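Re: [help] complex structure
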Amino acid sequence: QMQLVQSGAEVKKTGSSVKVSCKASGYTFTYRFLHWVRQAPGQALEWMGCITPFNGNTDYAQKFQDRVTFTRDRSMSTAYMELSSLRSEDTAMYYCARSQYGGNIKDAFDIWGQGTMVTVSS
Amino acid sequence: QSALTQPASVSGSPGQSITISCTGTSSDVGIYNAVSWYQHHPGKAPKLMIYEGTKRPSGVSNRFSGSKSGNTASLSISGLQAEDEADYYCCSYAGSNTWVFGGGSKLTVL
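Output below.
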């Protein structure tokens, strides 16, 4: 079945970086955008950006533009989210989510990974 | 990009109907027919309930429906059931290949 499986929980020090993976299966990886969404404890879902697996094009939310990098490995059907200069406010559950269409303004997020908890402490 | 505005909490008794609003601007909700709604139970991944404002994915109960008027989208749930208790988020395309979520609404089934 179609699914996204993310890497395990991470504990990081303030100022370091974290890299989370998201492995797709059950569909053609290059046909759908992959989005990254986070939820800090007690807070709302927050869209971070997306990557086009076909060509690696990325779009980032302005808030994260200076600190986040999305990449992908087509041979592994896996996308990656790297967040640098971590601070305590980055403690959150990070999700990858598949676009419903191939990258369209009407896109919704129809398949979600199970989430990866990232904890940042000094 | 500012988050879309949702009520922090809504509640209803089993069998009743509720509506959750999602207010954006003429740059997101108002201009694009691209609002989606997600149900989020604690500890689980969010689940797509409504897309393109009014459409239900296969497998989602027809008790869930969506609508839009101007800059405000709405999610309605009829025949409330205990398992509907969750957080609900709206999301809209916001131009230039960006999306924005609402602040979330906690639904309590009394």
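Chain A has a mean pLDDT of 96.
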